[in-house]
Amino acid sequence: MSGHLRYLGHSTVLVEMDGVRILTDPLLTHRLGLLHRHAEAVAHLVEDIEIDAVLISHAHHDHLHMPSLRRLGGRPRIIVPRGLGAMCRRTGHDVMEVAAGERFNVGGVELEALHAEHDGGRRPFGPAAEALGYRIAGSSRLYFAGDTDLFAEMAELAGTIDVALLPVWGWGPRLGSGHLDPRRAAEALLRIKPRVAIPIHWGTFYPFAFARFWPHPLGDPPHDFAREAARIAPTTEVRVLAPGEATKLGR
């Protein structure tokens, strides 16, 4: 069966494959604290459709956003790192806790929770939990990295991934530890060897006050990533999607 994915900004991606709809790290609002959305609104693209599963990579507020989970219609299964279940059940959705290495199915699609090299706890006083990535396997095979730095086990994905969703920046002028920048994301391609890479986690949100002197923030990282990928991992095709844009899946 054919499928496609739609990038909704930050780490939010809607994957439709083999009759299953999967949403990653939904962040659907215009504001998040001092951050505001610097892209078209996208909530309408998911609020009126049935989502089968939501994959949460870790507990940071820009990845586990409770108001966005409450905006989802129907009763999607919310997949979260172990330790976050009690908090997420307050949304009224069905919640499943997983740890790295665990596999499960949603419809005819197999999912596997994977390690991510990132501090996944809820700040400042929320529950502690590990950060995860996910492998999504059906008629196409996807890797959603969540937030992560490089780690050795990435190489174990080589030959098993058609499309890699890789973070290439964040929401500010600098990156802290546990993140990929364009160069390191391109290095990840050498380990994963996907057919296609799509940069995520860039340019959608930034501090509200910056708009006065930084009108087009963080638009360079995905293109910097594409250039680095062409240089060191030329066998991988990079597709840069603006928030709201979609691309087809297929082996």
Short overview:
This protein is an alpha/beta fold.
Structural notes for this entry:
With 251 residues, the protein is of the alpha/beta class. It has a single domain (3-249), classed as Metallo-beta-lactamase, Chain A (4-Layer Sandwich). The chain has 5 helices and 17 strands. The chain has helices at residues 44-47, 66-71, 85-88, 182-192, 221-232; strands spanning 3-7, 13-17, 20-24, 31-32, 35-37, 53-55, 77-81, 94-98, 103-106, 109-115, 132-137, 141-144, 163-167, 196-200, 205-207, 237-238, 246-249. The strands form 3 sheets. It has a 7-stranded mixed β-sheet, with no helix packed on it. Strands 9-10-11-12-13-14-16 form a 7-stranded mixed β-sheet, covered by helices on one side. Strand 1 and strand 2 (13-17) form a beta hairpin. Helix 4 packs across helix 5 (221-232). The protein is globular and about 45 Å long. The mean pLDDT is 91.
The quaternary structure here is single chain
CATH architecture: 4-Layer Sandwich
Poorly predicted runs: none
Largest sheet: 7 strands, mixed
Number of domains: 1
Given this structure, which CATH class is correct? Alpha Beta
Q: What separation lies between the terminal Cα atoms?
A: 11 Å
Instruction: Please tell me how large the radius of gyration is.
Output: 17 Å
What is the tally of beta strands? 17
Helix content: 10-25%
Shape: globular
- Judged by helices, strands and strand pairing, the structural class is alpha/beta
CATH fold-type name: Metallo-beta-lactamase, Chain A
How many helices? The count is 5
| Annotated CATH homologous superfamily | Ribonuclease Z/Hydroxyacylglutathione hydrolase-like
| Average of per-residue pLDDT values | 91
- Strand order within the widest sheet? 8-7-6-3-2-1-17
